[in-house]
Amino acid sequence: MIVEERNYAFQPAHFRRFLALFEAEGIPLMKEHLGQLIGVFTAETGELNTVMQMWVYPDLAERERRRAAMWADPRWLAYADQVLPWIVRMETRLLKPTAFSPLR
User: Fold this and answer.
1) Virtual CA dihedral for 19, 87, 91, 18, nearest 10 degrees?
2) In this predicted model, what pLDDT tens digit does every residue of 56-77 receive, in sequence order?
3) CA 52 distance to own-chain centroid
4) What residue ranges of the chain have pLDDT lower than 50?
5) Under 8 Å CB-to-CB from 58, ≥6 apart: which residues?
6) Are 9 and 101 in contact (CB under 8 A)?
7) Contact between residue 11 and residue 49 where contact means Cβ atoms under 8 Å apart
8) pLDDT reported for residue 103
9) CA distances from 18 to 8, 33, 63, 90, 102 (A)
10) Beta strands in 29-98 (DSSP E)
11) Which of 45, 73, 90, 91 has the smallest CB count inside 10 Å?
């Protein structure tokens, strides 16, 4: 199992619009394509106007397959065209749970 942590920082003027569009359009499409969502979080301290998502995959091959299918979906491409210009920074980390992690 791997956990993908995705972090995004947004232009402050677009952050609330992003959250509304993400909830209405982005998350439903992502759940359809990517599968198991652990959570979506916003920052209250540190770097503001940021969102962090966590997704679970059985392995890297499944992650690649699912993300390729999402990027082949015209609905996702239309959504991405709206929000990508608002992003200031993107970071992705692939995490592997320890043997003693409750989530593995």
Assistant:
1) 10
2) 999 999 999 999 999 999 999 9
3) 7
4) none
5) 1, 2
6) no
7) yes
8) 81
9) 11, 20, 24, 14, 32
10) 36-42, 50-57, 87-95
11) 45
Strands (E), 11-83: 36-42, 50-57
Taking CA atoms, 49 is separated from 6, 11, 13, 53, 57, in Å, by 14, 7, 9, 14, 27
Strands of the sheet containing 87-95, edge to edge, are: 36-42, 50-57, 2-10, 87-95
Q: Which residues have C-beta within 8 Å of that of residue 76, sequence separation ≥ 6?
A: 29, 33, 70
**98 in Cβ contact with 3 (< 8 Å):** no
Q: Letter for the amino acid at 69?
A: A
